[in-house]
């Protein structure tokens, strides 16, 4: 359930996210009652679509290849949620009616709602469609003639990419969340912290070369973020990890108690830790190694 009552919206704010030089700032724009109603309808449509896709969404994982429309979630206190959390918790955002004059700098638009119990909901949409109409030639009928629309026209979408309540970010379009949340930059910036945590959990692994590689390779940085979020990391057994690397063709060097990963096999090693490399033995004496593009843990059926 969402910690907000969509049928009891009391106030609505509208705004845009804009690249202001080196800053990514959020500005509010005044809108009338009709636009506020439309924004509320968009939020309701978003939640209805999410529930049709799944009432039990899985957690968003940066290393996963999510589909275009998929209901996933991320806890609001997750470090990858920091930009969207800051927007959700922001109060007294600047009102700038000129924000829409800088359409090329806009990366998203948003609505902030309050319900009759004082709870907050923030809805965000990547602004591609919102800006696209500005490049079109629009006409309207005036009397007996068609005329070019001279004023600026903006088109709202049918729904939002994500909804943020007090506990979590419910995501409908993972790519929209990644774009609006500037997730690529956040994941790369989190490499050092993620490695420090993993080093504490796996003291027998030499992470120096892995950290250096991941700071310039986004896919490796995504794997590190995903691995860190797994509760089972600290339970990984050193010998089992060595065996898994050997079985899946990942070249490592054993120096005393320390495992050193060959530079060419860093991605393979991260795939092992992220449970994406595995071996199947169906044909006698012919083990087969595979890489999983997606990872979903199978649940044991009750007997």
Walk me through this protein's architecture.
- With 303 residues, the chain is an alpha+beta fold.
- The chain has two domains: 6-181, no CATH class; 190-291, no CATH class.
- The chain is 31% helix and 24% strand.
- The chain has ten helices and 14 strands.
- The protein has an eight-stranded mixed sheet with strand order 2-1-5-6-9-10-4-3, sandwiched between helices. Strands 7-8 form a two-stranded antiparallel ribbon.
- Helix 6 packs across helix 8 and helix 8 runs parallel beside helix 10 (266-273).
- It is elongated and about 80 Å long.
- The mean pLDDT is 85.
- InterPro entries: KwaB-like (IPR032359).
Strand-helix topology:
Elements: E1 9-20, E2 23-29, H1 33-53, E3 58-59, E4 72-75, H2 82-89, E5 106-115, E6 120-126, H3 128-132, E7 139-142, E8 145-148, E9 162-164, E10 168-171, H4 174-180, H5 183-189, H6 191-201, H7 208-214, H8 218-228, H9 238-247, E11 252-255, E12 258-261, H10 266-273, E13 277-280, E14 288-291
Parallel strand pairs: 3-4
Antiparallel strand pairs: 1-2, 1-5, 4-10, 5-6, 6-9, 7-8, 9-10, 11-12, 13-14
Helix pairs in contact: 6-8, 8-10
């Amino acid at each position: 359930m969402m910690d907000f009552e969509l049928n009891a919206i009391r106030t609505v704010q509208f705004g845009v996210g804009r690249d202001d030089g080196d800053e990514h700032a959020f500005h509010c724009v005044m809108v009338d009652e009709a636009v506020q109603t439309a924004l509320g309808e968009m939020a309701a449509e978003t939640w209805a679509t999410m529930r049709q896709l799944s009432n039990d969404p899985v957690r968003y994982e940066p290393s996963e290849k999510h589909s275009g429309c998929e209901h996933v979630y991320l806890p609001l206190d997750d470090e990858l949620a920091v930009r969207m959390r800051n927007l959700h918790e922001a109060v007294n955002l600047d009102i700038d009616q000129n924000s829409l004059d800088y359409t090329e700098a806009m990366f998203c638009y948003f609505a902030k709602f309050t319900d009759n119990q004082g709870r907050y909901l923030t809805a965000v949409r990547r602004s591609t469609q919102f800006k696209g109409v500005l490049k079109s030639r629009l006409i309207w009928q005036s009397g007996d003639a068609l005329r070019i629309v001279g004023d600026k026209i903006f088109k709202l979408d049918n729904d939002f990419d994500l909804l943020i309540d007090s506990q979590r970010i419910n995501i409908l379009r993972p790519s929209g969340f990644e774009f609006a949340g500037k997730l690529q930059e956040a994941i790369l910036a989190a490499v050092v912290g993620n490695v420090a945590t993993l080093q504490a959990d796996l003291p027998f692994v030499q992470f120096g070369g892995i950290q250096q590689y991941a700071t310039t390779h986004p896919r490796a940085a995504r794997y590190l973020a995903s691995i860190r979020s797994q509760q089972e990391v600290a339970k990984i057994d050193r010998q089992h990890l060595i065996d898994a690397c050997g079985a899946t063709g990942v070249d490592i060097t054993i120096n005393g108690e320390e495992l050193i990963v060959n530079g060419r096999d860093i991605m393979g090693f991260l795939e092992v830790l992220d449970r994406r490399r595995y071996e199947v033995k169906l044909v006698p004496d012919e083990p087969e190694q595979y890489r999983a593009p997606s990872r979903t843990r199978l649940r044991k059926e009750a007997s």
